[in-house]
Amino acid sequence: IDLDIPSKDEVVMFATLTERQREMYAAASKNMLEQILQESWDGKKPPATRNTLMQLRKICNHPFLIQEGIEDGGFIEHTNESIVTACGKMKLLDTLLKELKAKGHKVLIFSQMTRLLDILEDYLTYRKWDFCRIDGGVDR
């Protein structure tokens, strides 16, 4: 056991939803999300939206979890700045990580959604930052 580890600092921060997230959240609340998604899926059938609570969770975590841009393999087809600007939480995370990286900190991020880890992996690759992903789907 390492007794020299500094104590944990915990700060609660609130991230606002982007305009697109607000639109999607309102539509999901009214069970109209599938109609909004239909526009961005170019005639393809959008993912099922029966579980409203799960859809609201996905929208808050990152709209790419149910929106266009995600390929079958879990990777975003063309990663660009929209991976950050599409999501309020990602904007906040981007600001925090830039500051922490500049100060030489290491960061540990937990998520219950492996698809969100896919998005974070694409984001970190886009920023050209080193990372190590540890989850059930990674070969050791």
List the helices and strands and how they pair.
Blueprint: H1 19-29, H2 33-40, H3 52-61, H4 82-85, H5 88-102, H6 114-126
Helix pairs in contact: 1-2, 1-3
How would you sum up this structure in a few lines?
By secondary structure, the chain is mainly α.
Structure report:
- By secondary structure, the protein is mostly helical.
- The chain has six helices and no strands.
- The protein has helices at 19-29, 33-40, 52-61, 82-85, 88-102, 114-126.
- Helix 1 (19-29) packs antiparallel against helix 3.
- The longest helix has 15 residues, at 88-102.
- The radius of gyration is 17 Å and the shape is elongated.
- The two termini are 24 Å apart.
